[in-house]
Write a structure and sequence with these properties.
single chain; 165 residues; Rossmann fold; 6-stranded mixed β-sheet; 4 helices; 36% strand; globular; PRTase-like; glycosyltransferase; PRTase_dom; Xanthine-guanine phosphoribosyltransferase
Length: 165
């Protein structure tokens, strides 16, 4: 990974969300719902939901990153896990901020695969080593990314919520 960082500002995120939505629309994909991977994917899903006129947004909480380039051994789904029956037969667009290793996206995509009519992934950034090649990507990079929602430290620090197993 490059020592240089990719910097995404709020203004540039607005451009990224719109261009990503245009790519999805131009492909003719019309999702029934958008499944956001929290937390970074919440911003992407909201942006895509407005641009693609999709009001049915769901959230899947997945813990993987614990710090800058620090992660758990495997991603972990946190409750509440979406009920598969709510996704049954739907065209699902999985939204996240980055496909880094691809492990989180793979976990969510595989969770959906047996229940939905079609599942596709949309991300702002995709890294070359990602195990998941997303259908919709705004930019490719090998750099660490400074997202506007996670660059500043938290206003309040909370104790670690996931214990290393």
């Amino acid at each position: 990974m490059s020592a240089e960082r990719e910097v995404l500002t709020w203004e540039l995120f607005g451009t990224a969300g719109r261009e990503l939505a245009q790519e999805i629309a131009a492909d003719g994909y019309r999702p029934d719902l958008i499944l956001s991977i929290a937390r970074g994917g919440l911003f992407v899903a909201g942006s895509l939901g407005y641009a693609l006129d999709v009001k049915n947004l769901h959230v899947m909480n997945v813990e993987f990153y614990t710090g800058v380039d620090q992660r758990l051994e495997l991603p972990v789904m946190l409750p509440p896990v979406p009920n598969a029956v709510d996704l049954s037969g739907a065209k699902v667009l999985v939204a996240d901020d980055v496909a880094d290793t691809g492990a989180t996206l793979k976990l969510v995509r595989d969770f959906c695969a047996d229940h939905v009519a079609d599942v596709r992934c949309a991300v702002v950034y995709e890294k070359p080593h990602s195990s998941v090649k997303c259908e919709y990507v705004w930019r490719h990079t090998d750099r660490w990314i400074n997202f506007p929602w996670s660059t500043e430290p938290p206003v309040v620090s909370r104790p670690q919520q996931i214990l290393d197993a």
